[in-house]
Design goal:
The chain is α/β, with parallel strands linked by helices. It has three domains: 97 residues, no CATH class; 98 residues, Nucleotidyltransferase, domain 5 (2-Layer Sandwich), CATH 3.30.420.10; 113 residues, no CATH class. Strands 1, 2, 3, 4 and 5 form a five-stranded mixed β-sheet that branches. The radius of gyration is 32 Å and the shape is elongated. The model has no long low-confidence stretch (mean pLDDT 87).
Length: 408
Amino acid sequence: MQDDVSRLVGVDWLTVTDVVDHGRWLGLEVELSARVGCCRWCGRGSLMVKDRDLVRIRDLPIAGRLTYLLWRKRRYRCEACERTFTETHPELPARQRVSARFRARLFERCRAGNAHAEVAREEHTTRYQVARAFEVGADQLQAARGRRPPRRLSLDEAAHRRRGELATVVSDLDRRRVIEVLDGRSRHVVELYLQQLPERYRRSIKVVSIDPHEAYRQAIKAQLPQARIVVDHFHLVRGANTALDVVRRERQRERRTRRPKGARRSGQHLSWRQDLFHSRHRLLRAREKLTARERLKLCELFEREPLLAEAWGLKEAFRSTYRAPDRAEAERRLDAFLAAVDRAQLPSFTAFAEGVSQWREEQLAYFEQPTTNGYAEGVINKIKLIKRRAYGLPTFAGFRKRAVIACG
């Protein structure tokens, strides 16, 4: 019967001698099934039980109730060397008041992104125990993970704290995991990290996907000359959308300044163009995703605002470069876009085209190595969620460990 209870609870290595209901919590009186055969110090077998101390250890809940193991811990005395020692077991760590499997439960909940205070409250334990479980589990997990050389890397920034304190998240795009989180996003920080990588790691990296950030590009060129740099196309398309929205807002400001003669200053909002404001999302939407009704609305707007029509055409012309079948066609479409921007003379698109020209090679590299920062952007969203649930991660060491364990 005792063996059946032990198997039911999941502690085959323990013998359950009694079950005590303490009202708020449940106590299982247990002892180790196997007794020590010889002395730990001299190796002889002349042992006698000197004492049986009672140790209370928190364990996994049973039927939703708090459960403690009341361990009758044997203390042995060797008759040969007259030294004493107590019995131990890996599942019941020495000098700890929680079992190994309960600590693993706390670690898995923290690894899933739950805040330490939230886990401690729901598991009816202390934040100290949760923090220690996370540290022990994180160290064991990082030691067990193999470090295979990556082939494709991704660099993206994440906000650690307010006031512009940014960190660089390094991800392996093939295995879809975070490798490291760096304190800062400067060229020096990234170069120092790449220098510390083993030589075989640096040689194995063939592609690096980055945002259009000059510090990342210079660091990669200096430390990974063989790697192909690919700029994430999402940020470039977003830049074209921003240039289009600037044109729309400029037209709206012009319309708002035209008040009828004799109109009161407090009524200047009456000249506000609602169609320009309400079309802001419609203008930024991809052409192939527009419905028939939205296309009709845009055509009516473009008849009244030909400048907006020209800006929208430039935005779609830039997007068409990523629908090209190969690099040669993409390069031709990009040159056509730059020529159209030069003819249009729209300040926002002129500034955007200058930036695109500086990243031309990295943009066209996408057609030879189709790599994006999509996974890295998902990681940044997950890090933001962890920070919100934890009400912030004040130290960079804690921020780095949570990000690497949760997304690694």
